[in-house]
Amino acid sequence: MLQEGTRGFARLAAYFHSGVALAALFAAMPALAQTSVTAPETPEEVLVTGSRIRGIAPVGSAVLGLNRDDVVASGAVTSAQLIQQVPQVFNLGVSENSRGQTGGSSNITYGTGINLRGLGPYATLTLLNGHRAVPQGTNGQALDPSVIPTIALQRVEIVADGASAIYGSDAVAGVVNLILRRNVEGVETQVHFGTGDSYWERQLSAIAGHSWTGGHVTLAYENGYHSALSGRDRSYFRGDLTAAGGGDFRVVQCNPGTLTVSGVTYAIPAGGVTQATVGSLVPNTSNKCDNIKDQDLIPEQNHNSLAFTLNQDINDRISVFAEGFAAERTFRFRPALTNATLTVPRANPFFVAPAGSTATTETVAYAFGTQLPQNTSVGYSRAVQAYVGGDVQLFGDWKAGAVFGHGVDTDYSNDYHRINNAAVAAALADTNPATALNPFGGPNNPATLAKLGNTLFGAPGRGVLQTGEVKADGSLFHLPGGNVRLAVGGEWQHYTLYTGSDGGFPGAETSTRFVLGRTVRSGYGEMVVPIFGPENALPGLQKLNIDVAGRIDKYSDVGSTRNPKVGVDWMPLDGLTLRGSYGTSFRAPLLTQLRASSQGLFVQNYSDPTRGGAVIQGVALSGGNLNLVPETATTRSFGAEYQPAFLPRAKIGVSYFSVNYANQITSYLADLTVLNRESQFAGTGIINRNPSAATMAALLAQYPVLGGVIPPTVLLFVDGRQNNLSTTRARGWDFDLSYDLPTTPIGDFRFGFNATYFTSFKTAITSSAALVDQLNTIFNPLKFKARGSVAWTKDNWTATGFVNYQNSYTNNLATPVQRVDANTTVDGHLAYQLDNNSFSWLRGVTIALDVTNLFDKDPPFVNIAQSVNGGGGFDPTVTSPVGRVVALTISKKW
Fold it and tell me: Cβ(292)–Cβ(306) under 8 Å?
């Protein structure tokens, strides 16, 4: 295990070739021999998310924060797991265990994105120390927080309010800022090992820092791993849910399979069938089986990540810094066993014709099972990001700064055992009994089978992001309420994505590569005007601040956007602050939404409500759309923060949010429940039942088949290409409460509560469709999510308990509609620091025990069919199939 972590570190060191950051880092190493002094003031002390003006919290918007203690107590193995614990974050779309919603189909390297308010995985902007970083994924999707070691996080700040006027594209639902530790002195190491039912995880990490006169350096490294979790290891994940009161969603692609001749089905018996035993076939019967049971619910993942910060004061007026990260993540995902609906011609020597049949072809719904190797997906995501910059003190409190960033991300996903459609057709048409394919339950020649599951598929992606920022901020003049402060700046981004696809089979591989690029030039300004303050406070007007911000972004490919934001903070009395904001935001299309890296047809199983939820095979088309325009949003918020004088250790925060989100780019490629909303697609051509043979012939002539075997009769066609279709209107409230109990003889107590409560979540699937309230329905935001905590400290002991709550909701994909139970889980953290131990080598050691899902509660039962994107007895978007995990963590400060 240690060797594997060492090898990962070596790969990262070799890969971290961007140069500038490492050069600066190692140039500072001689200073490590100097006498240690108090760490200087660093940019971290003035970095506040949501405002471009130094030291000012965003006016009109609330900031949710996770500090270093929260990170330690969370028990999270990755930074992504840490952020997923926040109630405002929803697991819809881009995560390792749920890929059925927007963005999921392109998440083939199993990364994790942050989805604030359930508005989409690309509607949240994730920053590193306030700067954009190169996105991950073969399609250049979004920054995966897992690239940052958890041991390197000082805090995470979340502004769940539109912020495009401050930061530009993607900040529709808000901003998440990952802020690195800077003032570490000495060395900290940590070993974490956790285990659950058929699952285990580990984390090895270290951080070192040193200060010298005017400067500081910090370097952190982490190796993390978790095993795969197979569907075989969770009893509630199954196709037949009748025992729990649900439906039977098993499929007919079995072994032995189901024969269809002239529209009549026949279950092939266990021993197979030949023409001599054709009398054993019973009309109007079929075999049913659970093919997806063998797939992984969570892939195996291993990651190595490194992060560093370096700052140096050149003199009293000039300071420089460098910071960045390097990360590598590998994955292995085992999918369902290979199955297909085969067309068998009469020339096949094993052809079975029921008495009186004159059919020249027939179909067999068939599962190859272990006859073909499992089509396991493997791949990696590697990212490097470095920044260099500096600040100059100008005059008064004015300061100017510049930052240059360079990032490279390389992703690859491949599998080697997809169905070879041409070889299958040839084997079925073969007239030689020794080499023809027999799908009727008999044995098959291994040499024949070896040719059927050897198609390769690879998805590469290499993104290069270059950024430049210049800004200046300071006070303009003084008012009785305080200083009027201004920030102005400009930004430049250039992003290049090298993408495409690999295919074919051994000896006949083919590759398609193309380059996509985009340049963005931006200018912004932000002004804070204090109308009332300490010098001119009046009753009811203790403080009144107004913040006005605006930004212009000019894209080389999708035009220009202008976005304003106005925020107000009003303190009518001491301890009570009222706030409100109004602004517009936008999100530019991903380059691969304009032009997809792979465009083709996929054979998929869909849940069909007209058949009681039974699964039918359909064909979906993937692809981009050059006519896409940016998504746009109008956001409003207001709220209050109260720190009552009679409870000086208490803080009560409440905020209302309103988001009107239009022109949303959607694709229904990964949505295997799309038929449940079929009526809303009328007239769009997205859903086409029983497409004509001519229509399918035209599609097959134009697009390659990228997955599965096209059935002889296609019952369903879904256009899964990208389109500006959807509209969302979201309304609700956020709550953030904390209270530090005065010190008691038994220790110190701290209580915390964070929750989000939606009042409505209305969506229109197309521009012409009516808005429908989807709140509290499956695969949409829940009405109420909350996480409460109680922390206790005494002497060297620390304990924290967490309660996570998600309300009940409606499963309207089931017939009849199902009410899914609420879900409550409990997590715990207990730690003891050995500072007073008489053994010197134990001083600085902390031993912690973490338990996730303390009572090992299974996910609530959900009556939905299994799919390759999760589901089948439970809802992977709101619950984890892992269950209880008990982990031991040992850390030491040197």
Answer: no
Task: Flag whether 481 is in a domain.
Answer: yes
CATH, residue 220: 2.40.170.20
pLDDT at 624 over 90: no
Tokens representing 655 are 């905020």
Residue 283 maps to a domain: no
Query: Per-residue pLDDT for 271 more than 50?
Result: yes
The contacts of residue 500 (CB under 8 Å, 6+ apart) are 460, 511, 512, 513, 514, 597, 598
What's the burial of 739, exposed, middle or buried (CB within 10 Å: 0-12/13-18/19+)?
middle
Number of domains in the chain: 1
Q: Angle at the Cα of 663 (from 661 to 665), degrees rounded to 5?
A: 105
Look up residue 175 and give its amino acid.
V
Average pLDDT over residues 222-248: 94
* Ramachandran sector of residue 68 (left: φ over 0; alpha: ψ -120 to 50; beta: rest): alpha
> Does residue 275 form part of some domain?
no
Mean pLDDT of the chain: 89
Q: Is residue 423 part of a domain?
A: no
- Cα dihedral 420, 426, 429, 432, rounded to 10, equals -120
Q: How far is CA 667 from CA 101, 558, 721, 722, 757, in A?
A: 9, 19, 6, 5, 28
Rounded CA Rg of the chain: 29
Rounded CA gap, 471 and 491, in Å?
A: 9
Per DSSP, the residues of 774-819 read -TTBTTS--SEEEEEEEEEEETTEEEEEEEEEE--EEETTSSS-EE
Parallel/antiparallel/unpaired status of strands 705-707 and 601-608: parallel
Residues in the chain: 894
Which candidate, 472, 471, 465, 469, places its Cα nearest to that of 491?
A: 469
Q: Which residue has the tokens 């098993």?
A: 250
Specify the pTM. 0.88
Is the CB of residue 295 less than 8 Å from the CB of residue 335?
A: yes
pLDDT over 70 at 361, yes or no: yes
Structure tokens at 305: 């990540």
CA distance linking residue 257 with residue 440, whole number of Å: 7
Its domain, for residue 330, covers 2-235+298-336+378-417+457-596+626-670+722-893
